[in-house]
Design a protein that fits this description.
UDP-n-acetylglucosamine1-carboxyvinyl-transferase, Chain, 2 domains, 30% helix, globular, 23% strand, 4-stranded mixed sheet, 22 strands, alpha/beta
Length: 410
Amino acid sequence: MNKLILRGPQSDIDVSLTIGGSKSITNRVLLIRALSGNNFEIENLSNSDDSQTMMNLFADQDQHIFDCHHAGTTFRFLTAYFSLQKGEQILTGSERMKNRPIGPLVDALRSLGAHIEYLEKEGYPPLKIRPFNKQKTKDISIKADISSQFISALCMIGPSLEQGINIKLEGELVSQPYLEMTLKIMSDFGIKSNFENQQIHISSQRYESKKYLVESDWSSASYHFAIAALKPNSKILLNHFFEDSLQGDSAITKMAQSFGVQTTFNGTSLLIQSDDHNLNEFNYDFIEQPDIAQTIAVMAAGKGISVFYNGLKTLRIKETDRIEALQNELKKINVNLIKSLKDHWEFEQFGFAKINNPVFDTYQDHRMAMSFAPLAILGNICINEPEVVSKSYPDFWDHLKEMGFKLEVK
């Protein structure tokens, strides 16, 4: 297991960086390309492990066993995809993947006519998937409060179904911007859909083939907002970002204002700058942006800003239990994250984070490593398993070097 000693930059930060394409957009466009049957060009693809895994699996469909490793989105999207393909496939993943629920998606696909069998634990990977004989119905229901990726997977195969698909969403919809992203990308490829009153209607249609440019990844950009918040006089220019973004995590531009960070767009470039404005507390519902909850929690701890959170329930079923992981690691800097009400979290008896050479564990979770890294601005830190960042942002440590951070691997 590698350890990374991280020291913050001594001088002001003034850099221009190019982050890879959005993992979320890339994975959706890759699935649409496979469903279209045409190998159209995709520009600015994500270089994340997850997207590379998905590309490799699509490129070698002669195999019988498909290993998605830690890539949850890939597993969910391929579960839907293989239910439409010829032959029998086995879809598996890492030990953590085998503990991430897949049942609601499998139930929905079975209702449509797919033949899917659990090979180990009921409701969880791995799966044996055989294709439809005939579509049984176009009307299905699915719980909306577990993962929007289940719903996105069903939407994207909808046009390829003989009868199309009507999806009734049950309960509170989590991560709605990701579902809206899915439907918008589908529309970019000629697919018409209707989404209102917890109902999605998609008729049988054909995807158009067209060259597609993937916007850079806002979840990855969020860590640079944290760096600017903690390091005065920072100027960080990020390329290939759109002001009118499909990505829900672009909301970080508004959130970061509470932490003394301002943003300016110039075409497809985004300038992040520090200023002197700070709030004393930050109250936010992360139900639509769960992937940046860790970033904000650590940034707030470093700035001495109290937080009041809700909408974190999906963090329990990510790469790790992210709530428990956050609690464990924040304690190392004298910050306690506690549950005060149902799905409501806050810092207890909060003061500024105390950085005394802490050693942070990452729980095989890329976002834990990147969320805690900016704290090196306040004092030397150590991060275990720093290589986990390759899951979504392989260039992360190199980009920190460009900013003046000192890295020492042990």
